[in-house]
Specification:
Radius of gyration: 26 Å
Number of helices: 9
Helix content: 25-40%
Distance between the termini: 17 Å
Largest sheet: 5 strands, mixed
Order of helices and strands: EHHHEEEEEEEEEHHEHHHEEEH
Length: 416
């Protein structure tokens, strides 16, 4: 099985190299913005967008313009890659089956990056990479780069530059060492509740640092824009944002790695996170209600990183011979796992589930009940709904392990 994997390292740069990398990133951003403006003009006059080949011809003409002479100092592969990325973004935006957001103009200082699809070199022994028209640059080597390198992306995060090397590896995927099937319920009070009664507390790193972040942003608002003090405060805010993102990402990697190694099949809800976190402001004519509460809920959901967690878990399970199943979330929090009675009254509070069926009265933690229902929905989806031979009579009951030949399907091959 061919899988795609990325190795990311921090580059060891000096002032000269940093200036050169910033020049390449700036030119790539300029080409993206000019090409996007060009495509929008064509759409405004009811013409179709140019293909990638047509954009490369326009790039040749831009290089000949006197005011854009600096584009010749940048390697052509990096500039052409920007056009290729834009063409792909436009194609996805006009895809009728699964349309994505229309590409937007890029701003300086926001996700500065550029990519080499070829022409680069990697020196594993000395921990350095060769970038055309820039030269050899060392990086903080933490491991060897294995596999066939396909491209290199240079990006800036805060004050540091990073290199991301994407490789292809032909790896034999064997059967998962475990036969465990587990359900999980993603939440806010508990980040993840499992059907084996274990759960993971939320990290809430943003909540811990938001007051510090707000204080710095208030100070920034009082400074003259682009002054030295403004730049220093801006750097502090960026550093704090990076700290929050790195801490959260590390926590998600630890949980997803543990689950992918210990369970062959993990079943989660197929959550529509973008719709769940939609704005409640409404319009001037029809203003929304409970806007402040909905804003706080949206912030709490996004701070958990559910989407990134699901992405990590999916490719890690595939690499280990496992599988991620996502089920319809309908009634997973309302259905009693003991008698099957469904009612909104079963969950009167966020913390506790209490079955309103008089002959049942099953009571348990609401998130734990959700994980049980999610697991049952996943088993039914796999055609294994009749494998359970015991009824859960209390929150302390343990689920029976299921030993079976896993019906695995083809999995996505990319993961970072």
């Amino acid at each position: 099985m061919i899988i795609r994997q990325a190795y990311k390292f921090r580059l060891k740069t000096n002032q000269t190299i940093s200036r050169k990398l910033a020049q390449f990133a700036g030119c790539s951003r300029l080409v993206w913005n000019k090409a996007l403006a060009f495509q929008k003009e064509r759409l405004n006059i009811k013409q179709s967008c140019l293909s990638y080949a047509g954009l490369t011809k326009e790039l040749t003409q831009w290089k000949k313009q006197e005011e854009l002479f600096f584009l010749k100092q940048v390697h052509s592969q990096a500039l052409q890659q920007s056009l290729k990325n834009l063409s792909q973004a436009l194609k996805e935006a006009f895809d009728q089956t699964n349309p994505k957001q229309f590409p937007r103009f890029k701003k300086k200082g926001q996700r500065d990056s550029f990519r080499y699809p070829q022409g680069f070199k990697i020196d594993n022994d000395n921990g350095r990479v060769f970038l055309p028209k820039i030269g050899w640059i060392r990086y903080n080597k933490s491991q060897d780069v294995l596999g066939d390198a396909k491209n290199i992306t240079i990006s800036k995060k805060g004050q540091y530059w990073f290199v991301s090397i994407q490789v292809e590896i032909d790896r034999e995927i064997s059967k998962h060492s475990s036969s465990s099937i587990i359900g999980g319920d993603l939440g806010i009070t508990r980040f993840l509740s499992l059907s084996n009664q274990k759960y993971y507390e939320p990290l809430n790193i943003f909540k811990k640092l938001k007051n510090q972040l707000a204080k710095l942003q208030k100070q920034l608002a009082k400074k003259e824009k682009f002054s030295n003090r403004w730049r220093r405060l801006k750097a502090k805010i960026t550093k704090l944002h990076i700290c929050i993102a790195n801490t959260r990402n590390d926590y998600l990697h630890k949980i997803s790695s543990t689950l992918s190694k210990n369970h062959a099949i993990v079943i989660l809800e197929n959550l529509k996170i973008a719709k769940m976190t939609g704005s409640a402001k409404g319009t001037g004519e029809n203003p929304g209600t409970n806007v402040k509460q909905k804003s706080g809920l949206n912030r709490a959901i996004l701070a958990q990183g559910w989407g990134e967690f699901i992405r990590q878990l999916e490719y890690k399970l595939a690499w280990n011979g496992g599988q991620l199943i996502q089920v319809n979330p309908k009634n997973t929090s309302r259905r009693c796992p003991k008698c099957g009675y469904i009612s909104a009254d079963n969950r009167k509070t966020q913390a506790t589930f209490c079955c309103q069926q008089k002959s049942c009265n099953y009571t348990a933690n609401a998130d734990y009940v959700g994980s049980l229902n999610i697991r049952e929905a996943g088993l039914a989806l796999l055609g294994l709904g009749g494998r359970r031979t015991r009824v859960l009579r209390s929150p302390q009951d343990r689920e029976m392990s299921v030993s079976l030949e896993l019906p695995l399907k083809s999995q996505p091959t990319d993961g970072v």
